Inverse folding.
């Protein structure tokens, strides 16, 4: 197969898409769904894979509704899913500040922030539900930051001009996840939810075209188990770890969604990845992950580099007039609070001009000197104290004294399995929620919107829409020895045996690092035709070497962390190729996808709405055969595509 | 820098286990402690040995996965720091570092440094929540929460459920963990209706899971990477007494 080989198939149509005035669509969809009789719910079995905000919230809510739920996570406790690490906050159109916010403005900001590559209906629903999420979380006991009045505090985030982000110090993700986790554990106690931790999904079971179960590996005993159900929910997060270095948890992986893709689920917009501008720079080859410093820091920190190339003075000795506050200079109306894609690219640009700082030259300053002088050290400490401490632990530098050094890092993936308005994938009975799906953020996600989407999908959308599927379809029970079950299990066993039998000379991590370098160099912040073609040659070569030369000690019948990693890297080696193909075919720049060939005169992303106003949903056609592209045309009835401007 | 490591190796739950010595010659100051173990593991794999198994995930100090006793201290000697955030610049060139799993009856070893902490989930299942079904919540501003209560609730909710408190405790008690959850929920108006039922059920489950009793040594709060204050245990005792001896818990 040649890399640019792909064929264009029939468009993919969202059959669940509602019409009519946008503010009535979700209401009408909710009224239109068929309901499962409450007495029958306990006979219906649903599998939920992943226990982050989307999966935890979905399992809890489906359990409360009376369904029988089986939940899986690879961590030792569901409370450790990577939603836990989200720092900054969660958006909601509460307009408590009376600053002109509304559901419509949140909808508008998100469609625009996504650079007009998301579905309007989905985004409007998200904005509507945002308000309910805050109510729900407060009732669960999520300790959001409050003011002296006892009312909830909010702050601003990138890409918007209202203050709509609710937060809990620098650990909003942990507090929201504990809410969902506790709600789920309550259902465990009630007997509706069963949790299998330290279990990893390795295959989807599809019977007569419908998702009916999963094959998992017990990561402690190595046992391969099949679990059957009436519907399957994947809430397994994003695939940023294809870059090896990212802000994702070490265990975050694409296997669940990639296995579903190989079984027929379309994978949409895989090249839409978000590079977060404020991360701690790489310090050496040993680096195992990158640490994010919350975007909220850009509320008070000022981003700059020296005006002169080769200015290696201590930053404190560089006078103001010799500093280039490049975000404030280029984007005077949003300044340091431009969206993430724009801030990241601007940092890359100044580093490309050799004005980057720090030992590697891959860094820019984030300076709190002005904020400390204006607000006092105490106020800065109250707001950002824990982040400053984290920075100091990692770098050994005190950010109250010396400006922080930051550099962009892979953070979030907007692409994912294609889903319709109901969050159903192209495999009937397979639902996908949270970062694992592609639906709401288009080509760039705004800050504090991931938590909102995960909880919206999990608490409020999926529990309603999945009922429609379950009520509309008569599903016969699947026998444990059904050929489809046996086949899926056999595939899993054979794959594990094959991995263990290679006994080559390179570790799994060495392959993962090499893949990461290829992806970062050619499919990172700036992509070009030549670079992507190069990557599309390198990745299949690396994949071949992996399958001939990887070394995995131990056996499959025990806790074997090398084996776990190998399975994940094997899937990343396939996904990486599809990402590059997707990036190559999309010959426009939009959001986080910046094609060098498609920029405006002043270096901003140049969209091509005439040719690329669609979601690219890819169909897997078998190993070594060219994928098929199915387009979903996007229609903008309310927010008309314009060149995004934050100037 | 060069580092000598003494690491607990244990094949599985039934293996007796032993300390094994390793040398890492090419450590650097900027490495995190877990990255040092990564470097060791890469060498072990290439020499045909099994790598050291250890739990870790976010490596940002928030998921609570990492769990090892370094030189006798849960998460290592650095105050308020999980082991994933501990950096090699805190050690001297040539030092010998001892690495063991959490040691506690309620946390059986699975392999090497990996232990089973599922007893914590069971304690949460017994009542570590506020019973509110999705969709039934009132408007968020309907109930203001005084800032002092919200802040104390947050300070307790900081707990990352790592288990360092249990590993540090001479009795293997999880009272700090328990107290943290009870204070998180008990400081909020939303947590009041179930407050007395919650404390009794969670304490009973804690005891049944094999955790020991609290004798107020305070080792837990010293070891806690999130600095959960020791007074959450006073809160736990206060609530437990009120619920039981004080008769606040109404039997249905």
């Amino acid at each position: 197969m040649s890399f640019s080989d792909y064929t264009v198939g029939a468009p993919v149509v969202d059959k669940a898409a509602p019409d009519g005035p946008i503010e009535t669509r979700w209401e009408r969809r909710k009224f239109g769904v068929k309901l499962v009789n409450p007495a029958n719910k306990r006979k219906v079995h649903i599998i939920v894979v992943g226990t982050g905000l989307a999966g935890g919230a979905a399992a809890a809510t489906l359990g409360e509704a009376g369904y029988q739920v089986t939940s899986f996570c690879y961590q030792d406790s569901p409370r450790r899913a990577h939603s836990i690490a989200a720092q900054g906050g969660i958006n909601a159109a509460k307009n408590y500040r009376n600053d002109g916010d509304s559901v419509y403005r949140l909808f508008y900001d998100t469609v625009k922030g996504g650079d007009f590559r998301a579905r309007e209906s989905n985004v409007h629903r998200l904005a509507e539900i945002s308000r309910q999420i805050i109510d729900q979380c407060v009732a669960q006991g999520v300790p959001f930051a409050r003011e002296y009045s006892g009312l909830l505090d909010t702050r601003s985030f990138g890409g918007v001009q209202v203050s709509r982000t609710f937060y809990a110090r620098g650990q909003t993700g942990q507090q929201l996840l504990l809410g969902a986790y506790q709600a789920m554990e309550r259902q465990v106690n009630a007997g509706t939810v069963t949790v299998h931790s330290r279990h990893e999904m390795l295959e989807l079971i599809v019977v007569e075209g419908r998702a009916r179960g999963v094959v998992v590996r017990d990561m402690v005993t190595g046992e391969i188990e099949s679990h059957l159900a009436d519907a399957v929910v994947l809430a397994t997060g994003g695939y940023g770890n294809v870059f090896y270095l990212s802000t994702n948890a070490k265990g975050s992986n694409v296997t669940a969604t990639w296995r579903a893709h190989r079984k027929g689920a379309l994978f949409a917009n895989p090249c839409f990845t978000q590079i977060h501008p404020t991360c701690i720079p790489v310090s050496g080859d040993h680096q195992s992950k990158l640490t994010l410093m919350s975007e909220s820091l850009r509320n008070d920190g000022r981003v700059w580099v020296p005006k002169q190339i080769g200015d290696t003075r201590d930053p404190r000795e560089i006078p103001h007039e010799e500093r280039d506050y490049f975000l404030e200079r280029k984007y005077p109306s949003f300044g340091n609070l431009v969206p993430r894609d724009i801030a990241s690219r601007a940092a890359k640009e100044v580093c490309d001009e050799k004005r980057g700082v720090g030992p590697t030259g891959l860094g820019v300053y984030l300076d709190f000197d002005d904020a400390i002088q204006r607000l006092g050290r105490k106020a800065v400490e109250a707001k950002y104290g824990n982040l400053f401490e984290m920075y100091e632990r990692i770098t050994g530098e005190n950010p109250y004294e010396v400006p922080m050094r930051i550099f962009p890092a892979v953070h979030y993936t907007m692409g994912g399995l294609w889903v319709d308005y109901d969050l159903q994938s192209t495999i009937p009975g397979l639902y996908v929620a949270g970062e694992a799906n592609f639906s709401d953020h288009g080509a760039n996600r705004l800050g504090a919107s991931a938590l909102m989407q995960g909880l919206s999908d999990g608490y409020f959308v999926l529990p309603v829409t999945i009922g429609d599927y379950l009520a509309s379809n008569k599903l016969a029970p699947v026998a444990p020895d059904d050929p489809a079950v046996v086949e899926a299990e056999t595939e899993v066993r054979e794959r594990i045996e094959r991995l263990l039998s290679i006994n080559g000379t390179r570790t799994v991590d060495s392959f993962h690092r090499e893949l990461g370098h290829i992806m970062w160099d050619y499919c990172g912040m700036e992509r070009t035709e030549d670079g992507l073609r190069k990557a599309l040659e390198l990745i299949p070569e690396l994949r071949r070497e992996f399958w001939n030369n990887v070394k995995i000690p131990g056996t499959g019948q025990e806790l074997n962390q090398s084996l776990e990693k190998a399975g994940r890297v094997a899937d990343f080696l396939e996904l990486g190729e599809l990402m590059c193909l997707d990036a190559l075919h999309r010959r426009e720049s939009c959001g986080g996808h910046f094609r060098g060939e498609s920029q405006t005169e002043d270096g901003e992303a140049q969209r091509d709405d005439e040719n690329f106003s669609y979601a690219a949903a890819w169909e897997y056609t078998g190993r070594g055969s060219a994928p098929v592209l199915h387009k979903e045309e996007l229609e903008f009835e309310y927010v008309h595509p314009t060149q995004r401007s934050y100037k | 820098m060069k580092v000598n490591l003494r690491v607990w190796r244990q094949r599985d739950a039934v293996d007796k286990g032993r300390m094994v010595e390793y040398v890492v010659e090419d450590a650097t100051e900027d490495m995190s402690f877990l990255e040092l173990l990564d470097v060791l593991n890469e060498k072990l794999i290439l020499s045909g040995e099994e790598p050291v198994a250890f739990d870790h995930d976010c490596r940002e100090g928030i998921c609570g996965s990492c769990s090892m006793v370094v030189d006798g201290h849960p998460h290592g000697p650095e105050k308020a720091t999980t082991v994933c955030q501990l950096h090699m610049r805190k050690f001297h060139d040539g030092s010998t570092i001892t690495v063991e799993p959490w040691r506690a009856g309620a946390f059986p070893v699975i392999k090497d440094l990996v232990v089973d902490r599922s007893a914590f989930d069971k304690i949460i299942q017994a009542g570590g929540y506020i019973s509110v079904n999705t969709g039934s919540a009132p408007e968020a501003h309907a109930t203001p929460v005084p800032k002092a209560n919200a802040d104390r609730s947050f300070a307790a909710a900081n707990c990352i459920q790592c288990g360092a408190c249990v590993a540090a405790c001479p009795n293997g008690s999880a009272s700090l963990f328990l107290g943290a959850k009870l204070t998180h929920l008990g400081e909020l108006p939303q947590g009041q209706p179930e407050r007395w039922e919650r404390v009794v059920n969670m304490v009973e489950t804690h005891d049944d899971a094999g955790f020991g009793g609290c004798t107020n040594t305070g080792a837990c709060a010293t070891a806690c990477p999130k600095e959960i204050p020791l007074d959450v245990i006073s809160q736990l005792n206060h609530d437990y007494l009120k619920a039981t001896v004080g008769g606040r818990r109404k039997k249905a």
